[in-house]
Amino acid sequence: MTIESEDDVWLPVRECPDHYEVNRLGQIRNSGGYHRSFTGRIRKPRFDKKGYVIYVISINSKFRLRYAHRLVADAFLGPIPEDMQVNHKDGDKGNPSLDNLEIVTNG
Hints:
Elements (H helix, E strand, L loop, with lengths): L9 E3 L7 E4 L4 E3 L15 E2 L5 E7 L2 E6 H10 L6 E5 L12 E5 L2
Antiparallel strand pairs: 1-2, 2-3, 4-5, 5-6, 7-8
């Protein structure tokens, strides 16, 4: 019998739930959809100029950049209101893990 850790929990990415999943560490994987042969494959993270972890994902057949911290917060904490932002508690923009994120007011 295998016991899953909390890091092994994968939730759908709200923008494209049939194609991508995200875990608590900020990893994204393919969950089917466009290319079933890639199902389960963890996507390669990239970093933007400010140090945020980003992913290139396909939404409605168009490639889009998405921030890992926002995908994690949206999946595990719920939708992010327009007047709120996702804060990295430790100040490390390269750490998109759920334990490091909180939704706060702008400003």
